[in-house]
Specification:
Immunoglobulin-like, 595 residues, single chain, mainly beta
């Protein structure tokens, strides 16, 4: 803490890169990022404290809407994310974090009996937030072998399927289902799995997974002596408990191998990674003195990768088949290559400070290396396997450049075009005021996006020249799209300004998704349109309720779909008026959500 005169003094600080933050109550100072302290160095600072902004909101139960008292709220800011502020919600679930500096905070929420949530983003110009926490769910069961005997020390992992929401961010008036920030655990809608939690079985083979969000799960059990076992799809409601899960593991084959050098001699202490699918976590081993390694309980098609510390990794794909033992040899090459070249602008002048990233195009040697170009644009990237390579170049003043395939290692010429800075402003067409929080997305030679600030203005930097489709979307307004041509600037810092954009306010629709037996359907996708605009979909909450915002005025059909309950539309079109809320919409899906 500073003394009476406001001075502070630190001694014996290890050399390194630091972030310095100073605060007292609601008074804060801008962070000093990237502070480099060399050995023996002395640094002095003058810091002025100014009033910060306040993050305020309320934490409530997503099902009952009742406030949650004594929830812990943690706000993190800064490039390193180490500066935190904490608060607890009062009896009405309300909280405040004062003295916040910067444009945005990352917020984390914890409460007894509820699923932890975060990070949720809150900007200085955003209104007070309402965070809805869902009751935590539980899955219990046991792992047994083919004879029904319990398997001890099996690792049981839960993988979330679809979009599992732990908290929903919305206004006080909303039902809490938005198309806003992506929740902490999300696997999208493609059926991919996202790792959630893990436990180890006891002597009786039993396991218990807690603090789970409502939604769909698959449970996977693994053991060094057995092949993986996977449950059927499990649907959890908020606060529910499943205790009837039994996973039967079967014996798998042994995958044994050696990591050798170019002469065939075994290499000791080389990490080896085994993967049996992108949705599963890898298994690791380390080679013995003779270079050998072994994995038990392996089935199907797998990849095994040697990860030496000073050489590029080498990967081999293996099909296990029906054999009890499968062997593989991974040969490491000590022959390394250095890729050399020069980065230039469109006039042929060298570009210094460009970040060059090189990736091997061979699946057998998955390696990526980076370097920066010198003042004259020259660069060299050492310790590479043999070609071909892919190259990416990035620089703050230029648009990014890619070369998909490079077959040589000398005289690589990388041409970077001056990046275009695009400026613009988005207005609410009804109030004629700047509209904050509009998502501005460019799609064309590159894909870039930004958000409008509190006054409705936005900036997109380092865009490559060319023809783009630019879209403007906001949860409460109709989306607008237009074509724009980004032309080469006459000088590096010359911006290009877009004509003022006006967005029409949309209406909102509230309703509920039910299955064939009138049971609420959680995590269903809900959208509008004919055909349905699934890219604008929201998710139903644990009671099947949904809110669609920014729906264009007029008569629209409402659609819902769910992996188990199926897909269907509303019985009739819904009339939508700007800024008005249409309620009482029900969508009945053709199947049961629990089957």
């Amino acid at each position: 803490r500073s003394g009476v005169a406001g001075r502070f003094h630190w001694t014996k600080i290890p050399a390194g890169i630091y972030e310095l933050r100073v605060s007292k109550g609601a008074l804060v100072a801008p962070a000093l990022d990237g502070l480099i302290l060399d050995p023996g160095a002395k640094r002095a600072f003058g810091v002025q404290l100014v009033p910060g902004w306040t993050v305020a909101g309320q934490v409530i139960d997503v099902q009952t809407g009742r406030p949650i008292a004594d929830a812990e709220i943690t706000g993190a800011a800064g490039g390193l994310g180490l500066h935190t502020r904490r608060a607890r919600s009062d009896g009405r679930g309300r909280f405040e974090l004062v003295g916040v500096m910067g444009d945005e905070q990352s917020l984390y929420f914890e409460a007894d009996g509820y699923v932890a949530a975060g990070p949720l983003r809150q900007g200085s110009s955003d209104p007070a937030m309402t965070v809805r926490l869902g009751r935590a769910s539980t899955i219990e069961g046991r792992v047994v072998d083919a004879r029904g005997m319990p398997v001890e020390a099996a690792l049981v992992r839960a993988f979330g399927e679809g979009q599992l929401r732990g908290a929903v961010l919305g206004t006080t008036e909303s039902l809490g289902v938005t198309s806003g920030p992506v929740p902490p655990i999300s696997a999208g809608t493609s059926g991919a799995l996202a790792y959630v939690s893990q436990v180890e079985t006891g002597r009786n083979g039993r396991f218990r997974l807690t603090n789970l969000r409502p939604g769909a799960y698959r449970i996977v059990a693994s053991h060094d002596d057995f092949a993986r076992a996977e449950s059927e799809r499990l649907q959890l409601r908020a606060g529910a408990a499943r205790s009837d899960i039994e996973l039967v593991v079967s014996p798998g084959a042994e995958l044994a191998g050696r990591v050798v050098d170019e002469r065939g001699d075994g290499l000791e202490g080389i990490p080896v990674e085994l993967r049996d699918g992108p949705e599963h976590l890898p298994r690791m081993s380390v080679t013995a003195t003779d270079g050998s390694f072994s994995f038990g309980g392996v089935r199907g098609e797998v990849s095994v990768t040697a990860l030496p510390y000073d050489l590029p990794p080498v990967r081999e794909d293996v099909a296990m088949g029906e054999d009890a033992l499968v062997t593989v040899e991974i040969a490491l090459s000590s022959t390394l290559y250095t890729l050399r070249g020069r980065v230039v602008d469109e006039r042929g002048f060298g570009v210094g400070g460009a970040l060059i990233s090189i990736s091997s195009k061979s699946a057998r040697t998955p390696v990526r290396r980076s370097a920066k170009s010198d003042a004259d644009g020259t660069f060299s990237v050492p310790a590479l396997p043999e070609p071909p390579f892919a190259l990416e170049a990035a620089h703050p003043a230029f648009s990014s450049t890619k070369i998909d395939s490079i077959d040589r290692i000398e005289d690589i010429r990388v041409v970077m075009s001056a990046g275009v800075t695009l400026l613009g402003e988005v207005l609410d067409d009804w109030t004629n005021e700047g509209l904050p929080g509009v998502r501005v997305r460019l799609e064309g030679p590159a894909q870039l996006e930004s958000k409008t600030r509190g006054d409705g203005t936005f900036v997109i930097r380092q865009a490559a020249t060319g023809i783009y489709e630019v879209s403007f979307s906001h949860p409460d307004f109709e989306t607008q799209t237009q074509r724009v041509v980004l032309e080469p600037p006459r000088y590096v810092d010359q911006p290009q300004e877009l004509d003022r954009v006006r967005l029409q306010p949309g209406g909102s629709i509230e309703g509920q998704v039910l299955d064939a037996y009138s049971e609420p359907v959680p995590t269903a996708e809900v959208t509008w349109g004919d055909p349905p605009l699934w890219h604008r979909a929201s998710r139903s909450d644990t009671d099947g309720r949904f809110v669609l915002r920014g729906v264009p005025a007029g008569s629209v059909w409402i659609w819902a779909r769910h992996p188990a309950a199926g897909e269907d539309s509303s019985d009739s079109p819904i009339v939508v008026r700007p800024i008005e809320n249409s309620t009482g919409t029900f969508i009945r899906l053709p199947e049961s959500v629990t089957e």
